[in-house]
Amino acid sequence: MFRKINTSNRFLAFSLAIAMISMGSCVTDENEVPKEEEELEDDRWVTLVGAFMGDAPGDGNGGTNIYAISYEDAIDPDKEFNVFDDGTPVKSNRTARLQVSEDGGTLFNIAYSGENGGEYAKFDIRGGSNYVQEDVTVNISQYAGTSPRWSKLYNGDKNGIAVNVANIVANNAEDATADFQYYRGTATVLDLDLQETLISNYKTYELPLSAEEELAGHTIFRLDAPVLNQAGDKLLIGTWMRKYDPATGLTESDFDRLGTKTVVVDYPSLENPTIITSTQADGDCSGYRSNVNQLADDGYIYQATTRNSNGSHILRIGSNNEYDNTYALSLDVALGLTDTYVDAWKYVSNGIGYALIRHGEEDQGYVVRMDLKQKTASIVQGVPNDPDVRFNQFQGFLVSGDDLLLPISPLGQDGNIYILHSQTNEVSIGAKIINKPGNHFIGVF
């Protein structure tokens, strides 16, 4: 319904509009941290994601379904949704690695493995199972393989970064008479223009460690979890380390780990790769299906480690693109547990983040609230405490202001979307989500 505007007020309305636009242009910074911190509109689409079982319950290898609901419905406990019966599949041989635009209206996907592995496509989200794919796609498999790791940068949905390490061999692989010096692979860093659907840049290079580390058989096995620093001029990429026995060429599972390492490259040129090392932890910082490197509103990049010798840690990297080796949050110490393992985590606001963890020999998942300023952590009450809760393939959180949306259900059972109020440590229950035997929920975007 339209209403009439008094002609005499048109000039005033126009002047106010121009002033508001001018004010916005003065304060907008394309590198400001990140837009998810804003409170979301009630009619914003929220994409609920579920993973089908393949051969075993909870393996998530049977494919991925998605379903779009409004934010208002997502936080309403009187609503219920069935992503497995009513949703639409995402093209991917295994669990898809999804990204959604900041306004919730566009879905980005790179198919993971299979005949379409490496194919990037984007979809217009129109509600329910209605995701309309754009005509143009691009395949990055010839550069980053058919199972690329990638993340969307928080720069206004302009770019995504895909990374890969391939062909790890010894320097003397083709000449047994030469002295062994190192195992290295070829790293690829690829910049994907999400709006124009094209590869805007890519670089390949080796990533050498110190001579001493390489002689012992250490190498960077995998890259993942790229994040752009606050200045927008450096890309930081998480690593997964591996060690080979130089005498046999076999991988070692029990070895003295090196300090946690991150690769830093210039952006947008992707040149000048360097490696920085933490003295506070020795775990990997590549994550699994979600980005464990988070740019916070204080300008630091906070990083979760896994496979640490004494449980997962939260580390931080400063504006100088170096580890702050005066800082570390040990979840083992903070929670009084042993061998904590961060499956996924998300920064919310004002120093508060939430981690999805398991610990010891257990597979059960727990939600942990972390105060990164005080370096404290506690297990969240008010969410399901069930041995069949799993977060091992979790991908997506949704932040609205100080709130975090999180779908939780025991494996194969119905659950709910939970709203975690970061500043008060309170929990609200949102929409009911219907499950199927062997399936689980892996995110909301």
Note down, in words, how this protein is organized.
By secondary structure, the chain is mainly β. The chain has a domain at 33-291 and 393-420 and 430-444: Methylamine Dehydrogenase, Chain H (7 Propeller), CATH 2.130.10. The protein is 9% helix and 40% strand. The protein has six helices and 30 strands. It has helices at residues 10-27, 71-74, 83-86, 141-144, 211-215, 331-335, and strands at 45-51, 64-70, 80-81, 88-90, 97-100, 106-110, 119-125, 131-133, 138-139, 149-152, 159-170, 183-193, 198-205, 218-228, 234-243, 261-266, 274-277, 293-295, 301-304, 313-317, 329-330, 340-349, 352-359, 366-371, 376-379, 398-400, 403-408, 415-421, 426-433, 440-444. The strands form seven sheets. The protein has a five-stranded mixed β-sheet, with no helix packed on it. The radius of gyration is 23 Å and the shape is globular. The two termini are 32 Å apart. Residues 1-37 have low confidence and may be disordered.
Set out the fold topology.
Elements: H1 10-27, E1 45-51, E2 64-70, H2 71-74, E3 80-81, H3 83-86, E4 88-90, E5 97-100, E6 106-110, E7 119-125, E8 131-133, E9 138-139, H4 141-144, E10 149-152, E11 159-170, E12 183-193, E13 198-205, H5 211-215, E14 218-228, E15 234-243, E16 261-266, E17 274-277, E18 293-295, E19 301-304, E20 313-317, E21 329-330, H6 331-335, E22 340-349, E23 352-359, E24 366-371, E25 376-379, E26 398-400, E27 403-408, E28 415-421, E29 426-433, E30 440-444
Parallel strand pairs: 3-29
Antiparallel strand pairs: 1-2, 1-30, 2-4, 5-6, 6-7, 7-8, 7-9, 10-11, 11-12, 12-13, 14-15, 15-16, 16-17, 18-19, 19-20, 20-21, 22-23, 23-24, 24-25, 26-27, 27-28, 28-29
